[in-house]
Amino acid sequence: MSNAINLLYNERIALSDIVTKALENAKVSQEYWRDIYDKSRADLHFLSDDKYAQWDEQDYNARTKSGRPALTIDQVSQFVNQVSNDIRQNTPSIEILPYSGGADIDTAEIYQGLIRNIEYESDADSAYDNAVNFAIRCGIGFIRVDHDYIDEDSFEQRLFVDRIINPFSVLFDEDSVKQDGSDAKKCTILEKISIDRFKEEYPDFDPNSFEVTGQSCTDEDYIIIAECFKIEEEDVYLIEGEDGEVIKSDTKPNKDVRSRKSTKRIVRRYKLSGTDVLEGGIFPGEFIPVVPVYGEEAWMDGQRNLISLVRRSKDSQRMYNYWASLETELLMKAPKAPVVAVGGSIEAYADDWLNPDKAQVLRYDQTDEGGMPYNPPQITPPIQIPAGIVNARQQTTQDIRATMGLYDSYLGQQDNAISGVAIQARQGEGNRAVFHYSDNLIRSITQVGRICVSAIPVVYDTPRIVRIIGKEDTNDEVGINGAYVEGQEKNHSLGMGKFSVKVSTGASYSTMRQEASRAYQDIVGAQPQLMSVMGDLLFKYMDFPGAQALSERMKRTIDPALLEDNSEDPQVMAMQKQNQELQQGIEMLQGQLGQLQEQLNNKQAEIEIKAQAEMNDAQTDDKKHRLDISKLRLEEQKIAAELEIKRQELELRAYELGFKTESAANEQRNKALNEFTELPVNVDVTPEGLQGV
User: Fold this and answer.
1) Which of 140, 231, 645, 655 sits at 20 to 30 Å (Cα–Cα) from 601?
2) How far, in Å, CA of 444 to CA of 426, rounded?
């Protein structure tokens, strides 16, 4: 009993150490990110709809309390949305390449298709868009990769890509310096949950908050829990086998084999309250599954600074709001009455002055009752806004654009660039000014690909059928780790080999389909005769009902020589070789058939000659010649049967090669074959025929 108590006590001490160490790490990271996050929060607040967002709070209150306007006319959000949406239109695509250790192209394609399916099922696009939008708006966003069971009734797991909606809840490794965060060795994600939910999910633990400076929970009904990741490195030995295969071992090998010392990365994962380890385990792979997406990154004296798109434009935007408010204030103070008149001078004609549009002439009394002259009514001139205010407001508009490096042409508006080359040059300047946001996203998505490649052999480690998505959004199923689908000949083991990751950018496949459709329509419209050459491609990329069926029909009318060349496919090359051999066999049979026909014709002539010379022995010769001709007839039938068999084999091979239509190649082949379907026989070998001879 005492040993059991000591074991439980030691285990609690160990778990307590985990919580203590995690709190220490979180506090260090929080201190590192404090200044960066404070500036980022200010940027997000500046873009919000809060009334103080783009004003100094004291100035705003002073103006509104005295009845003066304090307007907010947001000029910067349009640029934020423009940059963000441009990046959305060019969807990055993860590509997997074989690297070493027996990796091959086929398995790399399985990885690539599987990762595309992971992205599709988990809506990874929203995670990428969310992260880069935060990077543009406040300088930093995050993406995470996780795994879970496929459904409630399965033991199989799957990977998924998820978004982090509060970047300030992430305390990333302060020692990480790479832009994709691939060198991080720790990370803490803070989550605010209600006490009721905590008790429901963790009934065996007390609801104690994981308190970090600046991340405390002030609501009594909520607490903070932490999800912590930490990479631990363990010593392993690499041993080279007799066949060159590298084996990892935890024990030191003997001196007779080639070996070296290395390390193995283990990603520890914990869910923690302020006092307890709520959950614990190991994350598959060797990377922290949290990926930062940075905005503009600047380093000074070894200190990182992250700058959003709007940070340098905030003062210009505040000035714009001030000048717009002052202009409105002057207009508000301008007199509203259009006419100033001496009392009594226009009373007799009040209706005309109140509705001057209805009156042809505006009259007034020149003298009062005592005969004293009135001053004539005066038309009030419109208010004149000081030119300085107008110019200042226009200048702040230019300042906002200049601080971002984005001008009217970037938004699709006309500016002083008139020629097409000038417009493209100005748009190019805008694209280059914000290119670092999309470039940093590409680096981060590349790291997402590395995390997936590292985790897939662990998560997808059982024989199963998985769905993969091709480059053209085609769906397919393939068996992995010993499982097979119908027609699959090769086993794909995802635990073999190492793979590298790269990311390519471009329009989404649906956008490319639309562009291809427009391009083909323009080409066929300019040269209609090309419809017989590329009609199948024209309809292939259209989306109306029946377009694909029409594409297949058009393909049957096109010369096979113009279709896609599959000559490098080993199966196709083997079939083509067999087809050539069958053609050669048919040509040989055709030659033999010709020789037999010639012999048959010669025999007929010989019979005629002998019939005239040997009339007395006609009965004997009749039997003899009938025997010879019957023999030849059987030979012809035999060869004809062999020819028919070869023909059928050729038809089968041609069908397998894809020549399913009456193309030019088929017509030539069928014409050659049909010439020998019916054997030409010119001799009447019946007794009556010979009697006639």
Assistant:
1) 645
2) 29
